[in-house]
Amino acid sequence: MTDMTVQAPEHEAQFGDYFALLKPRVMTLVVFTAFAGMLVAPVSLHPFVGFCAILFIAVGGGASGALNMWWDADIDAVMKRTRKRPVPSGRVTGSEALAIGLALSGFSVVMLGLATNWLAAGLLAFTIFFYVVVYSMWLKRTTPQNIVIGGAAGAFPPMIGWVAATGSISLESVLMFSLIFLWTPPHFWALALFMRSDYDDAGVPMLTVTHGRPATRRHILAYTIILAAFAVWLGFTSAGGPVYLVAAIALNAWFLKGAWDIFRRDEVMAEADNYTTEKAFFKFSLLYLFIHFGALLADAALRAGGLI
Prior knowledge:
Elements: H1 15-21, H2 24-39, H3 47-71, H4 73-76, H5 94-115, H6 118-139, H7 146-150, H8 152-155, H9 157-166, H10 171-194, H11 196-202, H12 207-210, H13 213-234, H14 242-264, H15 267-272, H16 276-304
């Protein structure tokens, strides 16, 4: 873990350095899926209340990112993909990241509870705890199931958005959670297939490191099959509709083909073309969730207009 007594930064931190602590790219997905979960719910929030709910969910997501960067600064410094983050690069100290993360965590949970309801606030608090303690502090460095179980942390935002609007958990919110939860392993395992040296160097027991690439390819296919079933199932609930169903069927057909192509390859083939198939699958997976949740929003707009 990070040493809280990290020396002073090499230069005075700028606003952008502190903002980077919040993992803004990850926050984008948090905000978008939470917004979708709130908008497709059968109960409408006042626009100002809805804005506040999304703002506090975003702040909670950013708090998780800051606490994760505090804890993981030692391994972030080793991995090429993360060594330029604010803490390992020396732009922000570990103690600053910890203080910011704790302060934003408490603020976001209390304010979400006051703005909407305490069930939504409790889910946000549990999400922060799960990501920081269960995933970052425990699972990430101890088990190849780190991504499988830890993926739950990133799957809660649409459920929190739904609960903020309705005050309750339903099948629709569980399926939106499942969509992200089941997407996370193949998304990250595809990345690990062509970035394995990073995890080796950092001592992170990613599946590619502990079980090898052939096993990882099998797991990607298995999870993608289950993911496709849950993704299409969501389209038959009150949250779905014709736009979502068409999008889900098309997207998951492509995703299944990509997983099958990865499954059929061996390392000789993959290295020969510089992991082209794996990189294409990973890049598409970045769009996968945005298109699914965008389709949910499209159906919600059609319902609001009385068109479906």
